[in-house]
Amino acid sequence: MAKHVVVIGAGPAGLETSAKLSKMGLRVTLVEKEETSGGHLKNWHTLFPGNMPGLKALESIKEGLDENVKIQTNTQVTALEAVNDYFTVSGHNGWQEKADAVVLATGFKLFDARRKEEYGYGIYENVITSSDLETLLAKGNLFSNHKNPARIGFVHCVGSRDEKVNNLHCSKLCCITAVKQAVEVKQLFPETEVFCFYMDLRMFGRHYEELYKEAQEKYNIQFIRGRLSESTEDKEGNIIVKVEDTLLGKPLRIKTDFLVLMTGMEPAAGTKSLTAMLGLKDVSDKFIRPLDEVLQPNFTDMPGVFVAGTCSGPKSVSETLADARSAALAVEAFLKE
Amino acid sequence: MTFDLFVIPFFGGLLFMIIVLFLKYSRWIAMMDASDRVKAGMAFFSASLPVTIREIFWESLLHRRMFKKNPLLGFMHMSFALGWLLLILMGNLESRIYSGGHINPPYYPIFLKFFIHDKRVLPFEIFTLPGFFRFTMDLLLLFVLSGLGLALFKRARSKWFGLKRTTRHNSFDKWAIISLWLIFPLRLLAESFTAGIYQGGGFLTNSLGHIFAAFLPLKYLVYPSWWAYSSMLGIFFITLPWSRFMHIPTEIVLIFLRNAGIEQGKYPGSFSQIELRACPRCGVCIDVCQMNEAGLTGSSAVYLIRSLREKQAGVFLHSNCMMCGRCLEACPVGIDTLGLRVGARGVDNRQIEADFTYLAKQPVPATKADVVYFAGCMGHLTPGVKNAMIKIFERAGIDFNFLDEDGSICCGRPLKLAGMQTAASKLITENTKAILGTKAKILVTSCPICYKIFNTDYNLNGMQVMHHSVYIDTLVKEGKIVLEPAAFRAVYHDPCELGRGSGIYEQPRNVLKQIAEVADVAQDRENSLCCGGSIGDLAMSAVQRNIIRDGALSILCESNPDMLVTACPLCKKTLDTGNGLIVKDIAEIVADRMTVSIKQTVSRSLAGQMSV
Amino acid sequence: MERKSINFGYAIVQDRQIDFDANKHEICRAVAVAEPTLNLCISCGTCAATCSAGLFTDFSLRKVILLLKRGETEGLLKEVSKCMLCGKCQLVCPRNVSTRNLVIQISKALINGKP
């Protein structure tokens, strides 16, 4: 009988790993704590580069699944134990499986912007997060009660590169997402002035710098180098932004209709609990550290346990998918031994 | 016989100590401000004198505060202080029986048993005058020795005395304490040996004397034992003015000056010099200090005070402190540990000048509202608190003026805590102008740090200063806002500056109890823990602060509450770690749970009046 | 040393280049020893944005730190003397720079004046 792999988490990483493992002739059980698969991707309006809608990307990924992949939804993994040469995986609802290998694809969670109280999320109505903006864009009712916003601000690095919320790491995708969203807003509201408040613009990926240039050239999006210290709300509900224009060396106050907080990535609760359950190496950012970050990015300290996707650090969807395929290869190699 | 050579070490030591003490105290009195000297002089004839005497009796002799901390610790200190004093007094009275009632030279009662061998008195006789004294003197010696026994036991088992950590003493203190510890055993030996040879001892010394006589050549030992006893007394007296036992006379002086209404004033000054010497280095302040948790064990009040006295206090000592005031609360002597630290910081930072001339251009706001609200610097980083207050003012129908809506001048407390009083005063002057310019009657602030300094250093012409928790409590009591209970269990964290700093413990709890079930916290009110975010500290790293915060959180969350409520923007920001625990300010809870609008409140109170 | 040149009444003639090699860096080193978090600053400007003094006057802790690091210490003492030590910057700094102690240490190092 074919060997059995349990994949924990049915986001893009879990789905892609399962699809590839199944292609390799292995039996796969994909466990998901939520009602449906798809993770954060199902709520994401469009991806960059290419502007493919999140749901469409998800459909394409799911096409790879076949009858060898059993999806177990509504199941929160509560125990994972190594027994002799196999693993026992148990869920909160009594579900249990034996597995020859386990893939952790537990992903990330978005930073809770309320933790930066001085930014006003959850206090001021017109402060939203990047994730809220994607949802509004997907629903097609962005700023529906506010016909033509005069000015919109995007705040980079919310919950990333901030030791005050215990997150030293860079979530690396917020920069490009901010520029992508700024362009999308500008496409919908050409009259609106759009500002990005950043510490460093980390445009490292292919076409990222091009989009940045396009944002300047075609959409006249303004980039101000200064990190938000605090925002206030005036009597009309406008959000007053306080930054230092660090390139000019002067504090700057600017009134915006909406302020979008680019929330960063943190390890999901499941990532943290499984790290603890397995006694894996703990690192300060709480993402899982692979056996070797350069040579063996999908192996962990524990033979038979693998990682795929953002549970081992922030990644874009394309990077996640590549990582998932790499994880599938690693599992296959391990099970052949 | 009324003299022997062996009394010289004692008598010389005593004289030496008296002269040194006289010189030291005279210098401090000379250093005093003239007005303080007048106050001190008046105190001899004022109503404060009985208070002082009572306090000296309770604290310097009985050690009441020590008893409260730990009964064993209290008894240990009491047996030394009270026991020794009674030995001196009773010994003096006893000696008069044998001198025809007139006063003897000071050494005579101390060494009475050497000079007088009253064989008529039986060891257990207590109903004759000499018998009574003999019995009592042995009993008192036993009392002191029991304290000594405890002191030795404390070295091995300090936990039994409520002390997890004890003071690390320097070598000078060790010599002083060895001489102190040897005084009473040597007295016991000297008196027992004498009784063994000449009879005439009490129940203790006589019995021991007989036992010793059975196997020791007492006639050779007795004279050296009196020498040893006298020498130990001499060493103790000579070392006293430079050892921690300087606290014995100085605490009395401190109590007197404090009751005379003299304050610490500028540092270094005579009052602070006296405070430094009134510290017994008991170490009670060490255990309460949260800096230990962060591995900063050397900067507790006792070490700062010792180093200041020895003029060796480095930056490490005075800067590593959150100024939470737990040591101040715990100090059995009532030394103003925070004031001394601020003083030391001031000396260290004396050259730093602040230039706030740019503030002079600020327009002074003027409105007619009776209430002026001041969120404070930190309040601007907790818009939840600020907005809640605005909501509360509006709901209660209060006409208010938001003084620092567009940011503010700092209140000056952080500068003051850094020892930079002159710089702080400049901010105080500017702020006072702005506050008085509003012509309001009540100043409400959300920040306990501002609240504290508004009360201590601002002259606001009678304008009432209220922390928002107190103000909300008043609004609730007046029926201007009505609160609706909710089903959750909360714990309340006392901010240092509001609780220990300003004595406000009950008002925020009163308000919170109307909304939620309030669970107890093991260390609360006067004993509450600092959140770790304090602006009182300058040198700590973020990692060390987090350790202190986590320690405080674990105590606060012992009962697994649904919510942690506090009344300080800084505490709120510090304690909210994003680990799932809800942390809110009292104002936010209130703003969420106000039910009745102002009109309904008015009609309700009218209905109430009609039914009367 | 201020460089003098002929003033024709319209020129801003002071040499505006930072002469890094000519500048003295001892003060910066002394401050970094007294408060090592000096080296953690990433010049994001949050301190300057939230600054209570910055509301009223031209004062930026970020600039002070940079000037110190470049050895441009002339006039720096006057700059830091504007700080109220309120601690807002310390509360918002994403790198946990101990800003209040930094200000004090910069002042002390400048006063003690290692040239």
How are the elements arranged and paired?
The complex is a heterotrimer of chains A (337), B (612) and C (115).
Chain A: E1 4-8, H1 12-23, E2 27-31, H2 54-62, E3 69-72, E4 77-83, E5 86-91, E6 96-99, E7 101-104, E8 108-110, E9 127-129, H3 130-139, E10 151-158, H4 174-188, E11 193-198, H5 208-217, E12 222-225, E13 230-233, E14 239-245, E15 250-256, E16 258-263, E17 265-267, H6 269-278, E18 305-307, H7 317-336
Parallel strand pairs in A: 1-2, 1-7, 2-3, 7-18, 9-16, 10-11, 10-16, 11-12
Antiparallel strand pairs in A: 4-5, 5-6, 8-17, 13-14, 14-15
Helix pairs in contact in A: 1-7, 4-5
Chain B: H1 7-31, H2 34-43, H3 48-61, H4 64-69, H5 71-98, H6 107-110, H7 112-115, H8 129-156, H9 171-198, H10 203-215, H11 218-239, H12 247-259, H13 270-278, H14 284-288, H15 301-309, H16 315-319, H17 326-330, H18 337-348, E1 371-374, H19 383-396, E2 400-402, H20 413-417, H21 421-437, E3 442-445, H22 448-457, E4 464-467, H23 468-477, E5 489-492, H24 506-513, E6 517-518, H25 542-556, E7 563-566, H26 569-575, E8 582-585, H27 586-592, H28 598-611
Parallel strand pairs in B: 1-2, 1-3, 3-4, 5-6, 5-7, 7-8
Helix pairs in contact in B: 1-11, 1-13, 3-12, 5-8, 8-9, 9-10, 9-11, 12-13, 15-18, 19-27, 23-24
Chain C: H1 26-34, H2 46-50, H3 61-70, H4 76-80, H5 88-92, H6 99-112
Helix pairs in contact in C: 1-6
Describe the structure.
The complex is a heterotrimer of chains A (337), B (612) and C (115). Chain A is built from seven helices and 18 strands. By secondary structure, chain A is an alpha/beta fold. Chain A has two domains: 173 residues, FAD/NAD(P)-binding domain (3-Layer(bba) Sandwich), CATH 3.50.50.60; 152 residues, FAD/NAD(P)-binding domain (3-Layer(bba) Sandwich). In chain A, β1, α1 and β2 form a beta-alpha-beta unit. The longest helix of chain A is centred in the last third of the chain and has 20 residues. Chain A is elongated, with a radius of gyration of 21 Å. With 612 residues, chain B is mainly alpha-helical. Chain B has a four-stranded parallel beta sheet with strand order 2-1-3-4. A four-stranded parallel beta sheet of chain B has the order 6-5-7-8. In chain C, α1 packs across α6. Chain C is built from six helices and no strands. The two termini of chain C are 12 Å apart. Chains in contact: A-B, A-C, B-C. Chains B and C meet through loops of B and α5 and α6 of C.
